Batch of 2 targets.
Target 1
Amino acid sequence: MNITVAGTGYVGLVTGVCFAEAGYTVTCFDTDTEKINTLSAGISTIYEPGLEEMLVQNMDAKRLRFTVSPAEAYSGADFIFIAVGTPEREDGSANLDFVESVAREIAEHARGKTVVAVKSTVPVGTNRKLAGFFNPRSGISIVSNPEFLREGSGIADTFQAERIVIGTDDKAAGDKLAGIYRRFGVPILRTGLKSAEMIKYASNAFLAAKISLVNEIANFCEVTGADIEEVALGMGMDSRIGSQFLRAGIGYGGSCFPKDTKALVKLGEEWGCDFSILKSVIEVNSRQKQKLVNAAIGIAGSFKGKRAAVLGLSFKPFTDDIREAPALEVIRQLLDEGADISVYDPAAMGKMREIYGDQLYYAETPEEAVKGADFAFVLTEWPEITAFPLEKYRLFMRQPVLLDGRNCYSAEAAEKAGLTYVSIGRKA
Ligand code: UGA
């Protein structure tokens, strides 16, 4: 059974390595020669705990290889997973250029009897359109197979998936794909092609909505004197609500929620549907990202001549990904306000430096970042940051104002440590 994965981004690479780990022979394809050379040398191109070791082991076992040749990738494959990006266009819609170009190359090189499973997040109707790229007599069938793994826990999310969605109008192709997932022993849901495409967008929209709703309730808790953590605990005990994704904070980021919510709104417009809830979800999230700098301005009046430390740059812990990270918005605001900024993150410093160069000071430790600062912003709940003792802020900072965007510390302990402490949705 030969599997090819097209695209070695986050989803593609984790998928390829995990299929190899499950015992299949896997070829990962990408057009980026540098990436393929790095991967062929046994070096992971993404930051994902445990992935590099698994990659090397499977390369050594000759179950995993990498190529830039479409002929090599597609001609001998029984299954081809398309896992290339569908980035946001300027108008918010999903750019399908990469997906379409892969489909064209598959049509050219696949030898037939091939199941093409689309993991890329694509608007409803796209897979039907892609099927039109293949000659009906070629024996190539298309299945929608959306991906639900999270950055930072991709391997566990693959082997312990809560569901695998297989959407197709071609039952035999769906059966074949279900067959290769059987080894994972995870629940499989069979649906039509369009429903599978919708499940992906609807799931991300729902999760984003859950976060924005909880953030709005948190903001209201601040005004009324309630405490969002107690409120979320009480809400989460209702199994209809569920206790996950009720963590209030500085807003959601990453390569998925911001892009997919906007794409769904845009898609709705194209079909004459007004996603008014989703529009609010997006607006609440963008306001939430500005909340802490506004609070700091409320305390100090101005950032002129002030120093701000930003602890945590990635959009969540255990990744170096800073796409749409709240830190980007906070840093943009701080630069506009004329602050002097030092930053610290255990994994994402390199990516931040690519954007901001020498506009920021890149500290090697949290201590170094907060030294001499007037404000410290905690934006990602990395263990290295949550373990940083409250006393050290007071000891090292010029004016210890701590703005905790992830509710990492206890408000009571922060005050006891002599800090001016601002968090999200909790009693000040
Ligand atoms: C998300 C989904 O969770 C995955 O199921 C999906 O496969 C993926 O998008 C995708 O479409 O590819 P991911 O973006 O990796 O995964 O990260 P999440 O763990 O979902 O976190 C997203 C953002 O929400 C982070 O910024 C996180 O800090 C924030 N968040 C999450 C909260 O603010 N509060 C919460 O309670 C949970």
Target 2
Amino acid sequence: MEKVRVLNTMESVLANEQNLGSVICGDMISMTKKLKNVSASFDVSRTIVRYQGTDGNIYYGIIEGEQVLQLASGFAEIAQGIFNYDGVQVLLDDVKILIPVEPTKVINFGWTFAGHANETGGTANLKEPFLFLKPQSALIADKETIYLPPISLTNRVELEGEVALVIGKSGKNIKEEDALDYVLGYTVFNDVTARDLTKSDPQFTRGKGFDTFGPIGPWIVTGIDPTHLKIVTTLNGKVVQDGNTAQMSLRIPYLISWISQVMTLEPGDVLALGSPSGSCSMKSGDVVTVEVEHIGKLTNYVK
Ligand code: MG
């Protein structure tokens, strides 16, 4: 890696543009070309992963094939479109993938798909979203374990495969027409739910908030169109959910604008956009995978 030029800022990439011919590493040139394309609207598709490296430290990186280009940038910089490559490449298989962000809040929208609204006793929201918060302590990463609470607390824990968006810049009272400018990218979410408790409790806090009830990841993908993303959830390899964000009853910019009238959205905040039909219960030993088109697969084990 010594021969790889370390480019510390996007500005330095641009300043060094004339020297690119002398950069030996092809991957570095590829990376440099991509860095030059960074724009505030994140219209370039990038896959941003947060992981624990082989040295034990936590990094962000950009995935290219089977490699991760390690960044010196933290989330605050990345959210502003600053990707400081630190000159190190690692194999994706060699790192432990972590939750992609540490949000100040996880906002979940419910009943944005008619099928799931109907199967849980409601109707799709056509104007006022139905929403709840999940604590950050519920979040787990790809390949981590969903722990079922004791049977004395709940006897019906269900999966809900969803698309989630990650906020990239702070916003309050966001106009609908500007809303997507506040999105860094998209990830996969499993809104694990103790269905008996969401029916019996006056609030969703307990039924949605157990530790490990928020699988998220494995990474954030920028620059994709969120309006036509296929969502497929499998339980032990069998398809149980097969939906598409095109079926949503409320538009994503509307949801962002609507919630921003209530609370300030901060970089890293997560908005889970709701589940299509097919939510079903999970038991110990199960393996659940939520796959979203153009993003990837989120797999978790149930215990
Ligand atoms: Mg949900």
